[in-house]
Amino acid sequence: MKILPAIDLKNGNCVRLLKGDFNKVTEYNSDPLAQVEIFKSNDLNNLHIVDLDGAETGNQLNQNVIKNILEISKIKVQVGGGIRSIQGIEKMLGLGVSRVIVGTALFQPNFIQDLQKNFDSEQIVLALDFKLKNNIPIIFTHGWQDNSMTALNDFLDNCLYFKNILATDISLDGAMQGPNFNVYKEILNLYPSLNLIASGGIRSLDDLNSLKTLNVKEAVVGKAIYEKSIFLKDLRNDY
């Protein structure tokens, strides 16, 4: 399983939110470039970067930081947060981003069709951030603030061109309570061809082992690394 260490950017710093709450921010490193070098020195060369300012406002305020990160050799980066146009995706790919994460824009009229026309499916990651409502995962948008009123499975039924699916249970993100195994199991049972990227709540190597057993191929790990409940040496060379 490929491990993607998370770098969430806010005001140029490396932070983590608790359950998607922009008022509950913990700063871990004021120098994101130094954090990237730490990951790289541990052979963790595939990174997950989110511009939280962009996710909240739609304006990518950390683009210069992302550009500087992309200048570091021998790393691959997937980037999301506030990228809500075809031009924005093209710009990110032009900078050298390996995959662009798109969430809120998926609910704009005809946007998914435009994605299919302009990009290879491997260049795009669909961010389907969800909360459970009556035990049904419902997708939230605009930095996890707005209810799309769309069930996760209903969305996937109509969007199988794209294979990279980043599914995050917002209620678990940053909470260190374990990921939502039940939802992931259901997704993979219904859509076995998807590349499901697990995100939210991962707290231990046991969690990663359980995800691997479900046949999850990639996992985003954030707070568990920063809080040292998972050590980088245990994640080297993929897990």
Summary, kept brief:
This protein has 239 residues and is α/β, with parallel strands linked by helices. Helix content is 30%, strand content 32%. It has one domain (2-234): Aldolase class I (TIM Barrel), CATH 3.20.20.70.
Architecture overview:
By secondary structure, this protein is an alpha/beta fold. The protein has a single domain (2-234), classed as Aldolase class I (TIM Barrel). 30% of the residues lie in helices and 32% in strands. The chain is built from nine helices and twelve strands. Strands 1-4-5-6-7-10-11-12 form an eight-stranded parallel β-barrel, surrounded by four helices. It is globular.
Spatial order of the strands forming the largest sheet: 1-4-5-6-7-10-11-12
Say what the CATH topology is: TIM Barrel
Counted beta strands: 12
Low-confidence stretches: none
Order of helices and strands: EEEHEHHEHEHEEEHEHEHEH
What is the highest CATH level, the class?
Answer: Alpha Beta
Radius of gyration from CA coordinates = 16 Å
Number of helices: 9
Helical/strand content category = alpha/beta
User: What is the CATH superfamily label?
Assistant: Aldolase class I
Q: How many discrete domains?
A: 1
Which architecture name does CATH use?
Alpha-Beta Barrel
Q: Give the mean pLDDT.
A: 88
Strand content: 25-35%
Instruction: Name the helicity range.
Output: 25-40%
- Largest beta-sheet details: 8 strands, parallel, barrel
Q: Give the terminus-to-terminus CA distance.
A: 5 Å
Globally, the shape reads: globular
